[in-house]
Amino acid sequence: MFLLNTAADYRLPLDPRDQNTLGIAAAEDVEYYLGFREDHAITPLVALPGLARDIGVATIHVKDEGHRLGLGSFKALGGAYAVIRLVLEEAERRLARAVDMAELHSEEVRAIARGMTVACATDGNHGRSVAQGAQLVGARAAIFVHSGVSDERVAAIARFDAEMIRVAGTYDDSVREAARVAEAKGWTIVSDTSWPGYECIPGLVMQGYTALVREALRQMPEPPTHVFIQSGVGGIAAAIAGHLAIALGERRPVFTVVDPARAACLFETARAGHPVTIAHGEPTVMAMLECYEPSLVAWRILSRTADAFMTVEETDATGIMNRLAGPAAGDPAIVAGESGGVGLAAAIKAVADPSIKAALSIDGRSRIFVVNTEGATDPGKYEEITGLPPAAVTAKNVEGALT
Question: Which of 306, 349, 398, 279 lies closest to 11, judged by CA?
Fold first, then answer.
């Protein structure tokens, strides 16, 4: 399915709140914070000239977030950043003075952090980031996971000393249960989705994601003309679209938001022209994108900055995993999880459909940018789909460099 943005506020300026959250100064704050992370390294921007030639565009660049902060997902940038900002803000309140990021590991700040508990609901990746952020500062973390989250992903979160709480139902059920318990216990919810009256913290999470956009713009020889970004509740798509609109202005690329067909809450929201909750259906292999209700803040941004919305099928998601694991001649292999390559799958699908290609003005000069939002965060599932362990795919690049 495909549709162009027909929202009433399409191409209007961003809400001032969102301009502040996703603007240049805010992105610089995120980069300043990352400078204090021992495990921080700029993630690679991978060119795929072979695939670009095959589908008839000028360039394809993939920002590979499978290498981010040891967590294998772009979400490493959001949850941990929000937790640390909240700890610093609480320290400023209690100490009645400005507290810099450089003081994060001081005994004064850590004593305050020890009295704080952060909580969230997760499909896996966001919870890992929140738990890691809490461990970094000495706070407690309580992570709510729904019945569809694999034991392997639960174990990956628990290794950060987080309390794991199983919830029957879907991701959206776990969001509601996390909010209920947190309110009762006085915990701070660090969610990557927003609802009426709860916008500031999801804004901090999205702010963390601007780092990958800043890096990519510096890494690319020219800005992209077309961007395809996958979406769960909308946070990553909104962060990238919003920051590109601010950074590039009238030169911003054509931006397409991509949903799984089985969990297309942003697509249906765009069709309706206002946020809608969709019915739960058959689970999607794109587990990190299986959301049935959009973030209100994300929609506020995307209604202005997204140009189009489209969906991909289950076979598109698994097909791109295999295509990246066994790439076109001359292209490096990329380890992409079940949700990681969805933006690229949509780009290939758009170019192959004459009507979509024309609607998006894609031609032989187009420069496509996508994000591999996760590596093999569930290695067992990855091998089941591709027939290869992640290490074997990575080894292809080493072998290629030696020959």
Answer: 306
Q: Which of 18, 29, 64, 75 is catalytic?
A: 75
How does DSSP classify residue 66?
Answer: G
pLDDT tens digits, one per residue of 72-87: 999 999 999 999 999 9
Rounded to whole angstroms, how far apart are CA atoms 191 and 382? Answer: 27
**Which residue has tokens 């591999």?**
372
Contact 255, 307 (CB under 8 A): yes
Residue 327 CA to its chain's centroid (Å): 24
Single pTM value for the model: 0.95
- The candidate with the shortest Cα–Cα distance to 149, out of 335, 317, 378, 320, is 378
Integer Cα distance of 74 and 244 in angstroms: 17
As given in the structure block, the two tokens for residue 236 are 């990553």
Strands (E) across 111-194 are located at: 117-122, 140-146, 163-167, 188-189
212-246: pLDDT as tens digits: 999 999 999 999 999 999 999 999 999 999 999 99
**63 a catalytic residue:** no
Provide CB contacts within 8 A for 132, sequence distance 6+.
Answer: 69, 71, 76, 79, 80, 160
Separation between Cα atoms, residue 200 and residue 389, nearest integer Å: 40
Q: Alpha helix (H) ranges present in 147-260?
A: 151-158, 171-185, 200-219, 235-248
Question: Which residues 6+ apart lie within 8 Å of 43 measured at CB?
Answer: 63, 64, 65, 66, 67, 68, 212, 215
Q: Is the pLDDT of residue 104 over 90?
A: yes
Active site residue 331: no
Could you tell me which residues are beta bridge partners of residue 368? 60, 226
User: What is the torsion angle, in degrees rounded to the nearest 10, for the CA atoms of residue 25, residue 369, residue 294 and residue 34?
Assistant: -40
- DSSP conformational letter for 287: G
Q: Which one from 29, 64, 123, 307 is the annotated catalytic residue?
A: 123
Tell me the domains of the chain and their CATH numbers.
2-73+206-402 (3.40.50.1100), 79-191 (3.40.50.1100)
